[in-house]
Amino acid sequence: MEKLIQKEDGSQELFDEEKIREKIKELGNNISSDYKDKNPILIGVLKGSVMFMADLLKEITIPCNMDFMAVSSYGNSTETSGIVRILKDLDSNIEGKDILIVEDIVDTGVTLAYLLKYLKARKANSIEIVALLNKPARRTSNLDVKYIGFEVPDGFIVGYGIDYAEKYRNLPFIGIL
Ligand code: IMP
Ligand code: MG
């Protein structure tokens, strides 16, 4: 784990802007070569993936498209209930397309397992996941995440688009509360 830096708002920094930029460049390179000639559709899961999506797109050097979905899980806010509700569906038809789901953080995996099932029913040619952060400690759904930025410990992560009660999304770095 990186050296932790105490920030004024009480969060501790895990990954600074430079580290995030380098990692996303690496992910973009891998995706660009894996999806050469495929014109993938990147589907961002709102809202946490917004910053990641924007920076990742800039590192992808092949033609690609962007779409978004918004989901929420029933139940209280700290524990995923396993029932996922679609708040915003795709704009595009994904039949026969190569899909890359862009997610901020994979925790239990319940949200992505549901999304995978949901999107598979739409007959995409392929569906893979790119997640900036992976928190394997609390995983309950078996998931194959093809591209992972960083592994994070079992704590509450914020910043770079990721929130705690809608706060901290604007932090340019990733921290832990
Ligand atoms: P999962 O279904 O448990 O994998 O979690 C799905 C969503 O919960 C993620 O896409 C995040 O939006 C949110 N989430 C999970 N862990 C954290 C965290 O540590 N900080 C902020 N949001 C989180
Ligand atoms: Mg999310």
Give the count of helical stretches: 3
In total, the number of strands is 10
Show unreliable segments: 1-5
Shape: globular
Provide structural commentary:
The protein is α/β, with parallel strands linked by helices and 177 residues long. The chain is 22% helix and 31% strand. It has three helices and ten strands, in the order E-E-H-E-H-E-E-E-H-E-E-E-E. It has helices at 17-34, 50-59, 110-120; strands at 5-6, 12-15, 41-46, 65-73, 84-88, 98-106, 126-134, 147-151, 157-158, 174-176. It has a six-stranded mixed sheet, sandwiched between helices. Strands 1-2-10-9 form a four-stranded antiparallel sheet. The radius of gyration is 16 Å and the shape is globular. Residues 1-5 have low confidence and may be disordered. It binds inosinic acid and magnesium ion. Magnesium ion binds next to strand 6.
Can you summarize this structure?
This protein has helices at 17-34, 50-59, 110-120; strands at 5-6, 12-15, 41-46, 65-73, 84-88, 98-106, 126-134, 147-151, 157-158, 174-176.
Helix and strand topology:
Layout: E1 5-6, E2 12-15, H1 17-34, E3 41-46, H2 50-59, E4 65-73, E5 84-88, E6 98-106, H3 110-120, E7 126-134, E8 147-151, E9 157-158, E10 174-176
Parallel strand pairs: 3-4, 3-6, 6-7, 7-8
Antiparallel strand pairs: 1-2, 2-10, 4-5, 9-10
Helix pairs in contact: 1-2
The structure holds inosinic acid and magnesium ion.
Residues 45, 48, 103-104 line the site of magnesium ion (MG).
